[in-house]
């Protein structure tokens, strides 16, 4: 076999990712008939739970076709938990998602017409140790650390519950493959067996000195009905891009193995809970996380390996992933070059992907189950040397091999996160596709010394927020703002360099009025970097003396006629702003991109480009309401096409900002949005 970390930028959230769960995506055309496994596992949704109590649901795909259509929305940030989310569990047969937080709150989410909502809530007030769905998806097993266990239906009805009196805590709970028994592991090395009706069957001591971390079976988590339809019958069929046998053949007639992970790093492979001669795997790793693939032939074990001592006296550790077969034989070792513990792993896309969470970072591993071909090894070696997809075209290779080599750079998770080296292009020019980017805006504290309040616009991704734009109010009388990019305050290298994760956390901790509330415990653990944020260079106040009187005359900028909007005579009272009001040094120093100006009533706005690479006029917004609100409110938006202008296309039409004045009521244009 062969495994390698996917090429491309590291995916990360703004807080630590604590748990993962993946499920296949059922196409709309297949919902009323048996699911073809190949098409079902080509696309899916990854659920992540993080330390801020937010659940992320992100779209993933394993096919290597760039022209494949994706959902309109590829990421959801689900909010509702009051503490960090420690467990996420998909229910594939019923397409539901269960999430648990550190305080014991359990939410069951369901998606309807593109929106996620909470269907069930259970809060016992005790910490949940494990949550597991039955293999048919009809029942849920909930185990608490204080010894209370509960089995309920998928609709929320309680079937039975029991209080297990133990001197130690329950650490995990699972169903047997036939869903007739439930097994619980404890911190003192015991396994407790109960039947599906809550009757106690057995107590078995597996290890006297080591506690049980987790238990699992080399058996599919859910029994998804597979059709007899051939894989090639699908319209979406494409030949494997990862070399021969990119999709493993199901392993036949493998007896289910109970896999028990201990705190020492040892793993026992048992035919049943009372197996007297289990196969013991001595992984040599600490903080072990183990998970069988869906086919049941490959066990992934992630943990930390001690490499040596640093001069400072601390230990140098590295995260490894070791793969074993059903006989406990070691097959392959993947060195991830990660120096933080891997807290969660999960398989996806019919075992061709292994997803790992380490701190705020998410890693995707491509797995080849069979003996890797020479073509695949060459692909990975060349891709590691190139590092970027655009360098493939520089190679003198046949088109077919170039396409195969480019497939190594196609990400499994299509992030909305822009290229760190092209951040300004991402926020300044429209994207080539038709995807929707869902954002969140957060406001900071008002600082009289700096000016008005600050606002930051974030992209939602993996349950976190990625900063893309910053804004500051520059007028106390009018709603006028100056917009900058996240490289403000001289932290360009920090935000998009090696300190990307810490910078994202720093930028997201400045809000006190967003819908994500930070706990007092988390606030007390802020790094020194966050406390030094106030020492960053302050933006100067914008001189607005020229806008105090509407009768003051202004110099009208030179503009060409827009093909969409008629040319109008500039009005003395029309709010406008040109680059001449900003010193060039200030624009360069503070990374100004644009400014939003308005009239005194806050009903008409203009967006003026300040950066040299942007056109002067970026658009206008007119807000209109009737007396006593007898007519529906209207918002007219003028947005010219903004694209990169080369030296060969210098005569492109430019948007005219003087399309309205403060005295006009009837405005041209067809882009009208009504709010009723």
What does the model show?
The chain is mostly beta strands. It has nine helices and 38 strands. The strands form eight sheets. A nine-stranded antiparallel β-sheet has the order 30-31-32-33-34-35-36-37-38. Strands 1, 2, 27, 28 and 29 form a five-stranded antiparallel β-sheet that branches. A four-stranded antiparallel β-sheet has the order 3-4-5-6, with no helix packed on it. The longest helix has 13 residues, at 374-386. The radius of gyration is 29 Å and the shape is globular. The protein starts with a strand and ends with a strand. Residues 227-252, 488-580 and 646-676 have low confidence and may be disordered.
Which residues form runs of ≥5 with pLDDT under 50? 227-252, 488-580, 646-676
- Major β-sheet profile: 9 strands, antiparallel
Beta fraction: 35-45%
Task: Let me know the number of strands.
Answer: 38
Mean pLDDT rating: 75
Helix content: under 10%
Radius of gyration from the alpha-carbon trace, in angstroms:
29 Å
> Strand arrangement, largest sheet?
30-31-32-33-34-35-36-37-38
Distance between the termini: 60 Å
Q: What is the number of helices?
A: 9
Cα shape:
globular
Q: Which structural class is indicated by helix and strand composition?
A: mainly beta
